[in-house]
Amino acid sequence: MHNLKIDIYLKAIFLISLVSIISAFFIEYALGQKPCNLCLMQRIPYGLSIFLIVLNFFLRKNEQFIILLLTFTFCFSFIISFYHFGIEQGFFEESASCGLKNASDIISKEELLKQLQILTVGCKDVTFKIFGLSLTTFNMIISLIFVFLLTKIFKNYEKLKK
Is 40 helix (H, G, I), strand (E, B) or coil? Predict the structure, then answer.
């Protein structure tokens, strides 16, 4: 019999990840709030976690390895959101990743001028808040909680599996 406690934790992470992705798309497309490049990057770990958890529930193989991958995924999420939070608060300078949308596609000065005319959202510009906190702040908190939870599950996997 498979451990119910691990399943509950993974289902909770799956549900929170799914709600996070749906909320991000709702805020972007329904409410018209444009995300910056780092905001878009912060969606990747949630999509990846959804994929890994679905894979785990269908295959039921290498669950401990998938938990480790999820831990690294949310470590990456925490690092990106911490960096983004630092930019929002003025602790860090905006990097090139916060600027032009497709810098690799620019091969002429006309294309560069076109890109400069497109309004892009800077990473330090907070366009949407909930309870006075940016979505980056929520992402940072959620990612940190997931890292601690997944680390605990990974370290105690053999005990939890019984």
Answer: helix
